[in-house]
Write a structure and sequence with these properties.
6% strand
Amino acid sequence: MGFNWLKTTVLMAAIVALFAMIGGMIGGKSGMLLALLFGGAMNVFAYWNSDKMVLRMYNAQEVDAQSAPEFYGLVAELAQRAGLPMPRVYVIHEDQPNAFATGRNPENAAVAATTGIMRMLSHRELRGVMAHELAHVQHRDTLISTISATMAGAISALANFAMFFGGRDEQGRPANPLASIAVAILAPLAASLIQMAISRAREFEADRGGAEISGDPLALADALQKIEYYAQGRPMQAAEAHPETAQMMIINPLSGEGISGLFRTHPHTEERIARLNEIARGMR
């Protein structure tokens, strides 16, 4: 747990440093100071509210034992097996099969799944997926992913502001427009790289943790194979509108290929399945 808190602290510091860099471009030292204050305030805000913001982005609807008895019961059984408090449970009305977890700690966690994934997977496969999401909660990855998603979006907005409205140097003269364009391109890219640096390792660990929670590694392996196949032809509008949240999903929800493939936030599905097969052999 200590290492997760260290990762969170490093992530927050790196994001605030990006804010300072963009602020310096927009308004010199004064802009840098204002951006640092804004970045610090955003970190505090994101700590308390990023989960609510992400759930709102996806129009997630909270469900309970009455409105979604089978899905809610499945999550309750897995949370008990994992020794976790019962998270809030949400459904997202999207055809693409996907799921994510969010919340600043296990006591304030939420899990969400699309209607597409619930239609597409068997009960056993869905159980494997939700065990993976609860492993994220158990490892306290959800704080890192939700804060990074919120902050990466804010950095993109600030970088676009720098490009369209330009910046000032220390003497108040307009800054080099090429430098403003470079910042607008490179700052969001740097934010994405920060997310990517920790996201791939988190997915492997959540696969392993989910296999331990469910006791059935092959259920998740089968689910990943299905999700990878069916997700490709079903774009997820909320994810396309907020690409910084893609790293929270069990499989990358974005339809874009090409250069985006160079900055994958998720490990290759084939490698994840191979590792799950190894875990299953070890359990036998």
